Amino acid sequence: MRKLCVVHLFSLPRVQSFRPIRECEVSKLIDRISESSGRGPFDMSEAMRSLTTAIICRVAFGTSYDDERSVARFQSLLNETQAMFTSFFVADHFPLLGFVDRLSGLNRRLEKNFEEFDAFYQEIIDHHLDPNRSKTEQDEDILDVLLQIKEDPSYKIRLTFDHIKALLMTDSSAATVIWTMTYLVKNPGVMAKAQREVRELIGKKGFVNEEDMQQLAYLKAVIKESMRLQPTAPLLVPRESTEDCRLGGYEIPAKTIVYVNIWAIGRDPETWGENPEEFRPERFMENSSIDVKGADFELIPFGAGRRMCPAMHMGLANVELSLANLLYAFDWGMPDGMKNEDLDMDVQPGVAMHKKNPLRLVATKWVL
User: Fold this and answer.
1) Binding site membership: which residues?
2) Which residues in the chain come in under a pLDDT of 70?
3) What is the predicted pLDDT for the residue at 351?
4) In the chain, which ranges are E strands?
5) Which of 9, 94, 251, 345 is most buried per CB count within 10 Å?
6) Beta-bridge partner residues of 43
7) Closest CA relative to residue 259, chosen from 319, 198, 303
8) Which annotated residues bind heme (predicted)?
């Protein structure tokens, strides 16, 4: 399954083929913020969730699923899934007391969410299998690729519709953008430096394209620093030891569940110096060889090795393009009566580290 994701779904050429979708949706977001400029605080958290959902719908399901009703339905299902992730299931900790989850209604709520997601995905699959599907909808999306593989007898893994539904994905890039914007507002000097870099490069062109990103070294450092301090998943997917081993003086028996705490790794003073809690992107300018792609174990927001996140390229592309255009197009500030230092950093409990309270900022259109 991992090979399927890496080779067919999220390879760099495949991710690049979706560039027009990303640029189109980010452009819509910039227009939406421009229209609300001067009308009070703008809810960045809601806007980034909507952007990410729209991109996912178009990339995974095709152009017919960029209508507002489908996007809203998908977002609602994702929100409920996130709520279930943050719920406390007694059976996870005390298996013999699993009946408590049934009595509380949590089990039924989880089953209902699964059933609704299953029905949503089945509708999309049925649409893609429709022989009368319009030719204007034939741009190949991720679901098209999966359906082709399912019918390919030469492929070693026999895909079923259940496999396909499980592979239709979500994305954590919205959380990364929100945390990065939060850090930038709390550190106006860093924000000004990042904006200056983007605006000097782009000038009066009006929009940051993906080919511009390679020249935005400081912005990339800002993103790395945000991922270091606030990885969207503080713990990597758990692993199981296959044999007895000794690590750092600890004896680890075979079949032990092991969690990698990347939140703690990113704040380790032995690696990051005396002030690891400080938001200072310059540390990545001083040591630009450190990257997020799994080769540098001090910074592994996507994991490392054969089990690292296969959608890394997709997620990074979404984050970089969104942030570059947000910083290029607008100056950002706090609502009236609030200071930058008043901005909270509270985290919503759960598998992913989302900001607990919505990020509401005042956007002022930058005059070219």
Assistant:
1) 309
2) 1-9, 63-68, 85-86, 134-139, 156-171, 349-351
3) 64
4) 42-43, 239-240, 245-247, 250-252, 257-258, 330-333, 347-348, 354-355, 360-365
5) 9
6) 360
7) 303
8) 309
